[in-house]
Design a protein that fits this description.
7-stranded antiparallel beta sheet, 171 residues, single chain, alpha+beta, ASHA1/2-like_C, Activator of Hsp90 ATPase homologue 1/2-like C-terminal domain-containing protein, Alpha-D-Glucose-1,6-Bisphosphate, Chain A, domain 4, 37% strand, START-like_dom_sf, two-stranded antiparallel ribbon
Length: 171
C-alpha cells in the first residue's frame, strides 16, 4: 500500500516471549536510545488508551496519545493516534499494526505504519522511520534475548547449596 512504511524481522524466540517483551517491557525498547519513554497509561485492550511522553537527550519532549483498535494476545496489536481517550478525534498521523507470527519457535515480527496520505508517509519517512523503528526493534530483540537467557537459567538444574542440600544428601 502506498501509504505504508514497514519493517519486518525474525526474532529468535517464540511469539509468547516476544509479545511479553513488547507489552511488559515497553519503556525499555520503544524509542531509540538515548531517547527514553515514560508510559503514562497503557490499557492494552481493544478500545483502551495509550499515553506516553518520549524524551530526548537535549530535553525534547514528544507526547503521544492514542487508542488500541484491536488486541489479539500474542498475535496482533492495532493502534492509532487519530483518537484520544473517549474516542475524541485528534490530528491523525497513522495506524500502527504490530504482528507476531510464530514460525517454529521463532517469531516473524512485523510493524507497519499506515498513514492517511502519501504526504504523511513521506513526512514520517523523513523523520527517520526506518532507522528509528529498526533501532527500537533491535532494542526489543535485546529485551527478548535477556528474557530467554533468564528463562533458560531458571529452568536449568541449579547446583546444590545451603542447608536444604545437606538435608537432601543425608536422606
Amino acid at each position: 500500500m502506498s501509504h505504508e512504511l514497514k519493517i519486518e524481522r525474525i526474532i529468535d524466540a517464540p511469539a509468547a516471549i516476544v509479545w511479553q517483551a513488547w507489552t511488559e517491557h515497553y519503556a525499555e525498547w520503544f524509542v531509540p536510545r538515548p531517547w527514553t519513554v515514560e508510559l503514562l497509561e497503557n490499557d492494552l485492550r481493544t478500545g483502551g488508551r495509550s499515553a506516553m511522553v518520549m524524551r530526548g537527550p537535549n530535553g525534547e519532549e514528544m507526547p503521544s496519545e492514542g487508542v488500541y483498535l484491536e488486541v489479539v494476545p500474542q498475535q496482533r496489536i492495532v493502534s492509532t493516534d487519530a483518537f484520544q481517550a473517549g474516542w475524541v478525534p485528534a490530528g491523525p498521523f497513522m495506524v500502527r499494526i504490530d504482528e507476531f507470527t510464530d514460525e517454529g519457535g521463532k517469531t516473524r515480527y512485523t510493524a507497519v505504519a499506515r498513514h492517511w496520505t502519501p504526504e504523511a508517509r513521506d513526512q514520517h519517512a523523513a523523520m527517520g522511520f526506518e532507522a528509528g523503528w529498526n533501532a527500537a526493534t533491535d532494542q526489543l530483540e535485546e529485551v527478548v534475548a535477556r528474557m530467554v537467557t533468564t528463562t533458560n537459567s531458571a529452568s536449568s538444574p541449579q547446583p546444590c547449596a545451603g542447608v536444604q542440600c545437606s538435608a537432601n544428601a543425608q536422606a
